[in-house]
């Protein structure tokens, strides 16, 4: 079990709830979640973001995209691991995300074991 605060951003509430339940298995830290991408962007730009060790974010959302959130995160938190969630892992998305500093990807629908494996690796690599 890790003592890691994780930020989850996804406009699909079912995916958001699933992520919360799965991540509670591996962290004793806080899991902060947003289904509203504008609110998530405000959080990323706030001082509260200083306590977050990992961001898991959907790519395609109304109002603010995952790429926009990633770009904002990298301004103040260049080393915070960022796991991009997407249902459409196109070459363009991968290139754009890597250019902006995404650490890894996971394609929806995902298997929980695959998600946990990636999350645990990102947490270990960040320490």
TrEMBL record:
Annotated positions of the 4-aspartylphosphate modification: 58
Matching Pfam families: Response_reg
Classification via InterPro entries: CheY-like_superfamily (IPR011006), Sig_transdc_resp-reg_receiver (IPR001789), WalR-like (IPR039420)
Domain Response regulatory: 5-123
Protein name, UniProt field: Response regulator
Organism annotation: Paraglaciecola algarum
Keywords carried by this UniProt record: DNA-binding, Phosphoprotein, Transcription, Transcription regulation, Two-component regulatory system
Gene3D superfamilies: 3.40.50.2300
């Amino acid at each position: 079990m890790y003592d890691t605060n994780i930020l989850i951003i996804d406009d699909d509430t079912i995916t958001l709830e699933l992520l919360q339940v799965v991540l509670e298995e591996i962290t004793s830290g806080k899991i902060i979640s947003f289904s509203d991408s504008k609110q998530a962007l405000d959080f990323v730009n706030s001082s509260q973001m200083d306590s977050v060790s990992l961001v898991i974010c959907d790519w395609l959302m109304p109002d603010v995209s995952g790429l926009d959130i990633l770009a904002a995160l990298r301004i103040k938190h260049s080393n915070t691991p960022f796991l991009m969630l997407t249902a459409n892992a196109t070459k363009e998305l991968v290139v754009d995300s890597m250019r902006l500093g995404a650490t890894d990807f996971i394609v929806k629908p995902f298997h929980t074991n695959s998600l946990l494996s990636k999350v645990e690796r990102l947490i270990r690599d960040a320490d």
